[in-house]
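Discussion board: Methods & Data

I've been asked by a reviewer to show the raw model output for two of the constructs in my manuscript, not just the figures. I'm not sure how much to include, so I'm pasting the format here to get opinions. Each protein appears as its amino acid sequence followed by a line of discrete structure tokens. Is this the kind of thing reviewers expect to see in a supplement, or should I convert it first? Here is construct A:
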Amino acid sequence: MHVIAWIHCKRYKMQSIRYKSLFLLFCILYFPLFAYSDDILSIADDLSSRKLYDDAITEYKRFIFFNPNSPQTAEAYYKIGLCYRSEGKIHNAIEALDKSIFLYKDSELANRSRLTLATTLIASKNYNLAKLELTKIINSTNDESLLKKALYFYGIEAIYTRDWRSAEEYFRKFYQKSDNIDKINSIIKTTERSYKSPTKAKVMSAIIPGAGQIYSGNWKDGINAFILNSAIISGVAYNVYKKDYDNALIVAYLLLLRYYRGNIYYAGKDAERYNQRLDDQTANDLIKIVLIDEP
């Protein structure tokens, strides 16, 4: 009986010691996190500045885990977004920036996060979502600096989407008074005057094979189309002249329809490619003008 009591007493003491040890270990490991949460953010910032983004993200998340209701949690999410963006993990960056916007609510810091989110979306070619975020900033901010940045990047988005009129509009608001506005407007007007009509190119090639390609700047294919179709038409005409209608029909069906239709189709495509090259050159020219003025 005494032995059983002794064993029971020992087990109780050991269990008590175990709980005390676990409590002590918890205090040693986690109490500093509550007491020195600012230090965690400082460590995370230092890691981020040294481009150790994974380690920085871990520290920011550790701060968030132990301080979910801290006013600094939104900033931690914002910086996580910056780290992910620097790593090229766009989806993760967007999620973190969205959380920071939600936590910042309607403050100017939320608009700062929106601007970062918008530029991230532009970089990932999510142009419609980027426009949505930029519009929110333009409609809500009282910060002149943020407003100018939003106008600038709205113009950049318009360049990338080849929306020349919107690009001109937002850069006019951004620059207000600047020679660059006249340069931008001149480039856009020149581009719009230089477009080739795919429909017109097709009609021209339907009338004179190859004419649409030449109109679209593709002289080589235009001349080839003219020579090839002329040769086929001549062959059909020669067979008709000789009253060899069967061969005339075969040549017309197998060759003329194929190459004549192809000539019309590719005339339209050449016009589209011409316009694409023109748009690309216009975008490059506009970017060169506005890049030096990035706010």
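Construct B, same format:
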Amino acid sequence: MMLIALLIVPIIAWGYVSGDFSSLLAQSGVNSEHYMSLMYNGDHAITPIEIISNLAWGLGYCGMPHILIRFMAIKNEKELRKSSVIAIVWVVISLTLAVVIGVVGRAYLLPMILGETAGAPSTESVFIQMIQETFTNKINLPFIGGLFICGILAAIMSTADSQLLVCSSSVSADIYQGIFKPSASDKEVLNIGRITTIIVAALAFIIAWDPNSSVMALVSDAWAGLGAAFGPLVVMSLFWKRTNLPGAIAGLLSGALTVIIWDYIPIIGGQTPYVATGLYSLVVGFIISLLFIVVVSLMTKAPEESIIEEFELYKGYEEYDK
């Protein structure tokens, strides 16, 4: 449903855009030439730091638990390649259409300019506003519009429940049973998981309660934190057999702490490093985490021979599969 909405809504909206598109963009308060150019960010030419920061979003995929768990749930290894292709195609389609929606929506929703016109909703609601405008004012099919909005909610819930399940299983099985109480019964582990789910959901509710909070800002912070903490560890575990437990812990902690310091601690002239440099924290966190994994792994005991043999076994399978 979400894919159908992403495809249909901007096409219909484009059909209702009347007049010169560049002129409409100019009416919305932007320089149409710069707005449509990949080499501009707002009213200025894009800088190398902005290019690096934007590209760094791709690194985050390596450390997203709710994405990785989808691959872990695949029935057999032969489906991995197909799943990878599907995932990449979906990302390309969804991100491309998201850009199209933002560009078309700015002209389509005139004279209302989201985030600028008095009383107008946030720019983050552009897709919802386009659906409402299309299926309420332009086409009298509110039922279809409601289905498309349900598609948005379904996508949100899909990500949210995946994150909750990952948190729950990590705390209950990996931490509680794996470290603190290996003898814990299944019922006890289940109860810990349920409690964790309630706590995490409550914290998310509190964060979302702030009317001034930005979804984009929250996603950016979470993406950087998870990507810097888990991304380098996943990459090094797959491609470097010398990675060991101390190195993994060092990389995880250093990546997460780097993002927190970079985004929230004013250590450069009263400003956070992000504000002072404009560089996305994921870039710095990912690099720092990689360095810690390598250095600490080399300074500590190598993994057991059985682990290295298992690594070589899977590596050999991959080469054979090719």
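Answer (T.O., handling editor elsewhere):
This is acceptable in a supplement if you add a one-line summary per construct. For B, something like: The longest strand covers residues 40-41.
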